[in-house]
Design a protein that fits this description.
Elements (H helix, E strand, L loop, with lengths): L1 H8 L11 E2 L9 E2 L6 E7 L6 E6 H9 L5 E8 L4 E8 L9 E3 L14 E5 L9 E5 L2 E2 L2 H11 L7 H16 L4 E3 H5 L2 H7 L6 H14 L3 E5 L2 E4 L1
Length: 233
């Protein structure tokens, strides 16, 4: 029923198409596709509020898709069971989902039909706040223009190569978490250990932080004020 609702109500955020095409069941993780720009969407639905995690598909397949820049736009829909009402719906653009947001689940036990299969969770708090674009919030729909503008503002991230984009998104998420319009380099350095855990292969985390702040500046996400001071644009 949620997919039927989406087929009637959803539209493409990537272009001006007023609707999405519903794909056949079990079409390799894709649920919808834009008939105009061919952007692909995956829909996740549940009857209770989304916490920190959204259950997803096979871990290795998901990580491989992200590394190959082949993942889909994610739609996460919460509905109300009693009156079949859409309460919340968010969109995560495919180029705004870092590998650090993919959590490996435990393998299925020997008694399971697919024993040994390893799934994954998507960790919402590892995704930058403005990359979780609300389409419906507390039962109220945003306008198409607002959703498309929010998507457009994130589009510069698509220019980055997939293997480098993860660092940029993780540093942007740290900057978002500061809840400051203006911040200092030292504020980001304070999260050095968190970034080191997300990227254990890198032993020069502070150098990487400075580099990614330059990338975010070039993308128009932050403004350099001088002397280690920055402003969110």
């Amino acid at each position: 029923m949620a997919e039927a609702w989406a087929a009637e109500q959803l539209y493409c955020a990537n272009c001006e198409s007023p609707y999405l095409e519903r794909l056949r069941t079990n079409t390799a993780a894709k649920d919808f596709s834009c008939p105009k720009c061919m952007a692909a969407y995956q829909l996740k639905c549940q009857g209770h509020s989304f916490g920190r995690r959204i259950m997803d598909s096979a871990y290795e397949k998901m990580v491989s898709a992200l590394r190959g820049d082949e993942n889909l736009n994610l739609l996460a829909l919460q509905y109300e069971k009693t009156d079949w009402r859409v309460v919340n719906l968010i969109l995560v653009p495919r180029f705004a989902l870092p590998i650090s947001a993919i959590e490996k689940r435990k393998p299925l036990g020997p008694g399971a039909e697919r024993a040994g299969w390893v799934g994954c969770n998507i960790l919402l708090d590892r995704i930058p706040q403005d990359a979780r674009i609300p389409i419906v919030r507390e039962g109220r729909a945003r306008t198409r223009a607002e959703v498309r503008e929010a998507y457009r503002r994130l589009r510069p991230l698509e220019k980055l190569k997939a293997e480098k984009r993860g660092w940029t998104l993780d540093v942007l998420n740290v900057v978002d978490s500061l809840k400051k319009e203006e911040f200092e380099l030292a504020d980001v350095y304070a999260h050095e250990h968190t970034l080191a855990r997300l990227h254990p292969e890198n032993r020069h985390v502070r150098d990487k932080i400075r580099q990614q702040l330059q990338v975010l500046r070039d993308l128009g996400r932050v403004e350099f004020l001088g002397s280690g001071n920055y402003r969110l644009t």
